[in-house]
Amino acid sequence: MTPPVRGFRRRIHMAHVFLKDIIEEFGLIPITDVGTSKKIKINTANVNRPGIHLIGFFEKFDTKRVQIFGEGEMAFLSTLKKSDRANVLEKFFSFKIPCVIIARDMEVFPEMMVASKKYNIPILKTQENTSIFMGALISYLNIKLAQRTSVHGVLVEVYGQGVLITGESGIGKSETALELIKRGHGFIADDVVEISKISYNNLIGAAPKLLESFIEIRGLGFIDIKHIFGIGAVKESYAVDMVINLEMWDSNKLYDRLGLDENQIDIMGIKLPSITIPVKPGRNLAVIIEVAAMNFRQKTLGYNAAKTFDDRIKDEIRNKTKRK
Length: 324
Fold this sequence. Notes:
Elements: E1 12-13, E2 17-18, H1 19-26, E3 29-30, E4 41-42, E5 47-48, E6 66-69, H2 71-78, H3 82-93, E7 100-102, H4 110-119, E8 123-125, H5 130-144, E9 147-158, E10 161-167, H6 173-182, E11 186-199, E12 202-206, E13 214-217, E14 221-224, H7 225-229, E15 237-239, E16 242-248, E17 264-267, E18 270-279, H8 285-300, H9 305-323
Parallel strand pairs: 5-6, 6-7, 7-8, 10-16, 16-18
Antiparallel strand pairs: 1-9, 2-4, 3-8, 9-10, 9-11, 11-12, 12-15, 13-14, 17-18
């Protein structure tokens, strides 16, 4: 069963990252004029090592990708005559690629500089190993360009599980989160949780910059978790592993008592386990959420308490039937 996600707002998709942000993030060294880096936009998390393109094969060449030259590409260019190298690089840079990044702090060929200035395409350098840098850049771009949505709720880390607490306004989400924080669990976001889809099966939640480390408690107003509970109580972002929806207790509603029902919620195509917890005076919601997180972790490790209990009941019924 996959009910609609309540409280979710419009989807956001960050269409680009400016090249200047990548330069700052990775400490890249400009080799040619990068005055245009404030205008150059990167809108794909895919990057390219242009080995095959340097020999003239430009079928399926994605000109929107950041181009990374490693030892292989530079070694190939070094085998060419200056005139041939100039022709190859002239053709390559003519495709108006966003930029070229040279790994391992290797020397840049003069012909590359000429083509760069002709087509106004920045050349940058990094001292990092090619594979390590590519991995880091792809990870960075995946996060920055991820499909996003926002939800009215609270995100906390409980025993290593990212728990998204949802429910109607005033149900007690923030108060429950405050109790969990007091019990040593991590706080990520209150009121608005920005969720990013960083891969086909991973969601990351974070607070908007304006609300980072703040939580609103009715009657107290906004309090700063970092200053009250310490910097260790706040996490900048965390995976969203499960959703717990709080709702007012309805005496006419039948609630799951065995735990065999496994409801799910679809968030941007990823299905997460969803639990509905009825709220009424006397229920310790923080403890219930702690147990829910531990129980979910047990399930991921292969142990399902509800199924084990159900099997015991079935075995008992079978044994009684045999004794008759």
